[in-house]
Amino acid sequence: MTETVLISVRLPGPVAEAANAAAVSRSISRSKLLRIAIERFIDDLCGSSEQDRRRQFSSEYTFLALDLIVQREYPEVHTELLTEAERRMEAFHGGA
User: Fold this and answer.
1) What is the Cα–Cα distance from 47 to 61, expressed in whole angstroms?
2) Highest taxon of the source (predicted)?
3) Cβ proximity of 23 and 29 under 8 Å
4) I need a surface site. Which of 5, 20, 26, 71 has the fewest CB within 10 A?
């Protein structure tokens, strides 16, 4: 088991009550619930949560599948679509 460090935190009453209720309903300690919540929050900040990875994979798969369909079924517009996508990336996001 890794070494743990005690950190004291003050929470608003309703948040503390909700944390207690969530811990009880999951049959875990409040401390464990808060550790899990903090770990997930940190993962989310880094963009590496399971949900983020699933969303990224799904987006990439969808884009690849659509690109393949366009290349095979509509090759005459494939380059035009790529050019327009790049133009929009530049206009809306400041670069490709």
Assistant:
1) 18
2) Bacteria
3) yes
4) 5
